[in-house]
Amino acid sequence: MVRLVPSFPPYEGPHQVGTVEVEIPVSSLLDGLREDEGIRVKFEQKERTIHTILFRIYYPATGAHPHENVEGKPHEKGWGDYLHGLIGCGKRKPVYWVPEPYQNEFLKAYLRFGGLSKEWLVNWIGGRASLLPHFLNNITIPAIANSPLEKQPSTTSHFPTMIFSHGLGGSRLAYSHICSNLASYGVVVFAPEHRDGSGPVSIIRKKNANGEKEFTTESVPYVNIPHNLTEEMSEGRDYQLSTRLTELSLLYKAVQSINAGIIPKGTIFGPEGEEVDKDDSQLSMFRDKLDVKTPGRVIWAGHSFGAATMVQFIKSIYYMGSEEWKTQAQLFTLKEHEAAELRSQITKKSPLLLLDLWSLSLLGSKRTYWLWKKPLPQVIPLDTGEKDGEDACRLLTIMSQQFYTWKENMWAVKWVLSRNPGLRDGAVREIFDYDPITGKEIDTLTSSTTASESATSAHEGEVTGENNDGYRPPKLYYIKQSAHLSQSDFNLLFPIMFRKAAPDPQKVLGLNIRAAVQWLREAGFRQGLAPYGQVEGQSGDDEIFGCAEVEEGAEVKGEKKGEKKVLEGWVRLGLHEEKIKKKAVKEAVREGMGAGGEADLEAEGDLEEGRERSNKI
């Protein structure tokens, strides 16, 4: 049948991809909670109760027949498997990109998110009288629902495991293509759906107290927060971040439970909400298969606000319990035993993938700013005892051209990647001349360099590639002719909306995936990941970082031009801080960042107007 709906290209890696959707009651993950009780997130005068966490797992699969369940029993198909929406019917019940079973709610929420303010118009366009639902509700992803997990590469290896945080306007399926492609190379990816009001909508399913099979549902709508640096924005984003950080800590507990073979009570699977409390569930195949026990092995990743979430989460856990931590206002905190589990996992060697980092949400308040001045653990030099021969870069940042041309955000990104994000260049480095929160001048905030510090730059050694002190320079690249949403599914599915900004979305995502795979293989996951160059039908080799065009000032000492074939549009960036003299971070951001970070579905046009176009993200 000729498809009349948007579709995804095949995945690039050698493995088929399976996927399963999971929702777990918080009361099954934390001690001391009643069965119907959640965890409360408090911020200022606001309070939110998290009852469940919802996530989708993307994983390398055997490619077994999708109509056989884990026990090998055939799935009983109905006409609904073939006639869903009457368009795009297949031989098996597919995984729909607009989340089931609440597709109409999601479609209407996206219409509101896209700017439709008239509710009657939202109901008409998103209703059955319109053709739009028949097109959008039938978009499918090329993954096999509930397929068995692929066999491990060896008896001693485990699958690399990633947690991926979505940006504004996202969901557990909005980044399905990059998550599934990583799975096709051998990564198990957990993609949560945040219930913080950053997505178009999220539906919480809770078990009825009377024991009936049907679930009680609660809708979490999109919360419209201003995108300029105001007190309202700061409070709103802090509230969202506090929710996201709590959810990530809960998801980490869930991942550890799944790997231990423990299925939390009340766990429900898939759109149908099947509840399984026994060990022979869809999750039992992950038992002792995930690389999550060894410290520093969980991979953390996110896009836009999701990337900012990961920066805040990594720093929060790494510095939690320190003397300075005890004196600062916090976005979230954990009980000591829970904090200890995460602190043992998040180390200087924890891989961190940042896609189009949106920095505005990290500059808003005192709760985020004190950590803004702290370096990410991935850029802190390794001590002698921490070096083990696998000391490659653990921090990869890939920017779109749209965010690259947004100079104030790029300035902030480079500070996030800095070893000394609170310091300036100079023999005596000045910490910001102005308080970025109040904009007032700060007296005598200077820091003399020590013998162990460079006297020239917080990024000394990064451009030259020198690494004698245990410092591992982060990798920073951008892709030409790419939009902010090119790293999500939106650009692939709706290319006409980005035709000027990103005419080749498949190429852009391909570069992101290829870079992530090589970076992970270099970071100690070589055994678990297939190399790019050995996949049938793909050209080139496993190398991408040495094939980049080079921004002026980003040359590596001793590098010879012309040794590698240059990948068109793939550009390495220098890590030198840009100078903003006598200006507060907050003021610089207010002038240039403006409205950024939102996954607006409007056409983005030319990228020449970087700052103006960034307001539509």
TrEMBL record:
It catalyses: a 1-O-alkyl-2-acetyl-sn-glycero-3-phosphocholine + H2O = a 1-O-alkyl-sn-glycero-3-phosphocholine + acetate + H(+). It comes from the Eukaryota. Residues 608-617 have a biased composition (Basic and acidic residues). Residues 445-458 have a biased composition (Low complexity). Keywords: Hydrolase, Lipid degradation, Lipid metabolism. The keyword Lipid metabolism applies. The keyword Lipid biosynthesis does not apply. One of its GO terms (molecular function) is 1-alkyl-2-acetylglycerophosphocholine esterase activity. Its EC number is 3.1.1.47. Gene3D superfamilies: alpha/beta hydrolase (3.40.50.1820). Residues 445-469, 591-617 are annotated as: Disordered. InterPro entries: AB_hydrolase_fold, PAF_acetylhydro_eukaryote. GO terms for biological process: lipid catabolic process. It is an enzyme of class 3 (hydrolase). This is Putative phospholipase.
